[in-house]
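Example 243.
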Amino acid sequence: MLNGDASERAPLLGGFDDDRANHFVLDIVSPDIRSPFSTGPAPHRALLSHGRTRTDSMSDDEPLRSERLVLEPLVEAHAEALFAGFSDPRLHTYIPTDPPASIDALRDRYRRLAKRTSPDGRERWLNWATRLAAQPIYVGLIEATVREDATASLAYFVFSEHARRGYGSESAGIVVDHLHRALRVRAVQANIDSRNLASIRLVERLGFIRESLVLEADHFKGSGSDELVFTRVEKRFDPSSLP
Ligand SMILES: CC(C)(COP(=O)(O)OP(=O)(O)OC[C@H]1O[C@@H](n2cnc3c(N)ncnc32)[C@H](O)[C@@H]1OP(=O)(O)O)[C@@H](O)C(=O)NCCC(=O)NCCS
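Predicted structure in complex with coenzyme A:
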C-alpha cells in the first residue's frame, strides 16, 4: 500500500515520481521530541532487534541498529547511494512504482520525505536507508506512515544483489518494534500484491496476520493487482512499563 497525501504524495515505496509509493518509518522519540500523535508521556525506550533494549535519549536523527544493520533516517543525500539499487526494474515487479528517472528526481523526492510529515501534518512519513553495519554498503530502504489513530503502514525494499540474506525481515522487524514500543503504534499494516511471495513470507515471519484479500485493488504494469492485507497488532506493549 502506498501512503501519501493527495497534494504531495509521500513515497511509500522508495520515492519516485509515482505518488503512490510511500514508506514511512518512525524515529525514536526522545522525551522532548514527541510524536504529534502521542497522547501520553513520550516513550524513550525502544526495543531493537535481537531483543536488546536501548534506553538512552536518542534523537529523531539517530539511526536504529542491529548487529548486522544500521537504519539511517532518510535524507536527501541518500539519493546517490540508493539510486542504483532502485534503478533495478526487478525491484518494482509487484509494486506500482517505476525506477527513478534520475538521481535528481530521487533527491527531490527524498528532500520532501525528509520533512517526515505530510503537508497537512496528520501523518508521519518515516523512511530509513538500510546499510550494513560492517561496511558502507546500502542494501535497501524501509518506510512507515504513521497516522493519528496510532496505526501505521509499512513498506520495505532490499536490493536484488543483497536479497535472501534476511535483511528484509530483519530491517522490517527493527522498524515494527520501534513503531510499537517507541511510538505507541498499536497496529501495523502491509498491503501486498498476492503474487509477491517474498513480501508475504517476510510479514508472516514477523507475525503479521492475513486479514483480507482485495481483488483488483490496483492496476499497474499491464495487469490487475489483487492485494493481501496483513496486520500486526501489538499486544505486549504496556505503557506502565515506561520510566
Ligand atoms: C520483499 C523483499 C524486501 C524481501 O527482502 P529479503 O531481504 O530478500 O527478505 P528475507 O531474506 O528477509 O526473506 C524473507 C522471507 O522471504 C523469502 N523470500 C525471499 N525472497 C523470496 C523469493 N524471491 N521467493 C520466495 N520467497 C522469498 C525468504 O525465504 C524468507 O522466508 P522464510 O522466513 O520462510 O525463510 C525484497 O524481495 C524486495 O525488496 N522486493 C521488492 C520490493 C517489494 O516488493 N517490497 C514489498 C512491498 S509491500
